[in-house]
Amino acid sequence: MTSGTGPAGGRRRPDHPPVMGGVPPADPDFTGREAILEQIHEALQRSEGARYLIGGGSGVGKSLVASQYAHRYADHYDLIWWVPAATDTDVNGSYLRLAEQIGLTVSHDHIARTVQGVRRALARDPAIGSWLLVFDGATDLETLSADHMPRGGGRILITGQDRRRPPRGVPGRLFDGRIVPRLDTAESLSLLRRLCPERLEPIGTGERLAEHLEHLPLALTQVGAFLRESPLGTEEFLDRFQERFTDKVTRMGTDDEHTAPLAAAWEIQAEELLAGDATSRAVVELVRLCAFLAPLPLSRSFFSRSRDPQAPPDQAGLFGDGAHLDRVLEFMGRRRLASVRPGTFHLHELFQEVIRDSMPLVEKVRYRDLARRLLARNDPGDPTDPANRHGYLLMHAHVKASQAWSARDPRVRALVLDVIDFLTESGEYPKAIGVADQAVNAWGDDPVRLLHARLQRNMIRRVHSEYATALAEAREIHSGEAARGGPDSDEALEALRAVAIALSGLARFDEAERLFRQILDHRRARSPGDEHTLEAAQNYAQVLLEQGRFSQALEVSERNLRERAALLGRDSVSTLRTDLHLGLTLVFLGRWEEARDRLEDCMARFAAQAASETPHALQGLLVLAAVYRGLGDTGAALEHSTRALALYRRRYPPTVRQTLYGRVVHMVTLARAGRGDEAASEARLLLPPTDERFPADHPFPAWARVGAGIALRSQGAFAAAAELDRAALERLRSLYGAGSFNTLAAALNLATDLYGLERHEEARALDALTEADCRAILGEEHPILLTARRNHLVSRQALGEDVKEEWTELFRVLVSRFGPAHPSVASMTSYTRQDCDVPPVVAV
């Protein structure tokens, strides 16, 4: 695509009007700013990929300038798309609509994937033509640039407060920009003449009015629209204004003085509105209510479908009476108190701040409570349903703005818990713990909901590897719940479950297994078909897996799958989690083809439920990558591990446990796919954060060393690989005992290191011991045993033994097991060893 410098040179279709997506209507009262508009255009047309930041304080008209630019220079672009950018919710919603416009496949349940598809298309697809994105109200330019802005291909205009350019996180992508000042006297007078030309007499009145309002466009616009319709004379308004303004400045701190003109003007308007008819009184009610919601476009249906039996008469008509609400919104638009568009309306953030500050404490409490009840009546209902994702993202913003966690209303608290659950399910852990912390601090009077919030926060601590803290907290919670309701109460058992999970995270598997068994026995005895019972079975199967008791884990998971499918349905996310666990268990039992088929079916079902980017599904992708490696399909393995790791990195920091798990799997996949240099480089970067994130006696650092050894060995670094494999073997033997399943990969690979160092006698001795261990615990056709047999034959042959007949027999077994095209079969034309490659057993 070529983005040109004018309608003749850059547009793909200059004979067609541009597509204008979400751009606010042109403001007929816009005035001045000519030099700024010209400067913006010159900077944007200087080069393809140009970015320009319009900075300045709140209320100075940054968004109006951006909107005016879009309309004035529309004929220079094929596509202009307006992107509200105060929150990632707004940006994502706008990108979904843009994806539809440019013909991409849209998934409202895979938002991140759709966003990245839009970025790629804008940067690469010439069919889109010359485009302009306008990011309005940006608050975090660095994140916005990294996560949403396309890299080249068009032009980008941003509005944000008081920042000339973002941090230098994107090389070569610094922003041009300028601060937008308040209007000068001539511009202020021009604006007032458009709004209230008959109210500016005698000469000098307009100048005084503009000066009193400090040339702030937002204040000038509201006051001009007010004076146009009010019986109050301009001189009387100025007298009242000066009195109110002086009083406010006297009581305000220095940081708040910028709001004084708008605050004084609103106070005068509110007095007149409250003395008026039902519509004007309802305007004040709606404005005050919306002041305690997030500064986002608000849906008309948010109010019209929500009757509130507790609302006083002036508020009642706002809820459930669409005709009355329409009259109120028309009035607000006419008076410039809100930007009203079809289906939505939006209050300026500075105006919201002024409204809140204008109310006495008792009124703030009343309106904030009303806002919270409104939110509770609009709760989407099911935090785990991907169809509710957008609704809950909006709810999160409003919950924060209204401080909903401080409410005592049980319906509002239920909404807060739903938001925490949604954020947790979506992997938005920092946001979830932020809300959970507030709820925990506020809900001492509500033990049931307090427990829910504390357990969610405890889970998030575990996600962030704070297992020692999580264990101490979980034990405290359990002690309190056992004392309050008895040790067998549902609440005490849920808290005990948190204790067991934390113990497992600290590699104290035997203790965890006893607690999980205890919980499962209690649950099954009391309510065998309950979801809590089935979740307890899932936990018990996981700890059996971690202990290497795979057959028992399989038995528990198979029963749990049947019971969950009967209770919840075959396609519920909870059932799919159990199915994934069963697939993972099959991997360790060596039943790789069955595991592949089951896991692929799981992933298809996750996709059908719009849940293919949930944390559980991402782990399924990584296990599939390992299975495909084992089955010799490195292309499919690399595709799965690359996608999973990209999604992990978008969701988590690079050194949390989940991402480290993904990095280990992907590193080994790179090595097996012939990209050993990349794998070896990752191995050197991976181990320090792994050691930092896991306790000294946890098995995962050992598994990471086994994977790093594979990566280094692919580059011929046998000595370095041997050091890693030896350390891994020692740690795993200390945790699980010599000869256990969890030690086999490290032992086999250490023998391969020794062989590569030409220490054939040591390699043969370790091979013999490991093959014997494999035969003791694995089936005859288990892939790990077959690898052990092969490697032992190679080390014996190197020491002069005749192993031809055994080699031929092993070849026959491998052909029967994997088929003639499998790499392990094709490579048997010579006596070569193989790495032992299995995914980490431990859950992270």
UniProtKB/TrEMBL annotation:
<protein>
    <submittedName>
        <fullName>Tetratricopeptide repeat-containing protein</fullName>
    </submittedName>
</protein>
<dbReference type="InterPro" id="IPR027417">
    <property type="entry name" value="P-loop_NTPase"/>
</dbReference>
<dbReference type="Pfam" id="PF13424">
    <property type="entry name" value="TPR_12"/>
</dbReference>
<feature type="region of interest" description="Disordered">
    <location>
        <begin position="1"/>
        <end position="28"/>
    </location>
</feature>
<dbReference type="InterPro" id="IPR053137">
    <property type="entry name" value="NLR-like"/>
</dbReference>
<dbReference type="InterPro" id="IPR011990">
    <property type="entry name" value="TPR-like_helical_dom_sf"/>
</dbReference>
<dbReference type="Pfam" id="PF13374">
    <property type="entry name" value="TPR_10"/>
</dbReference>
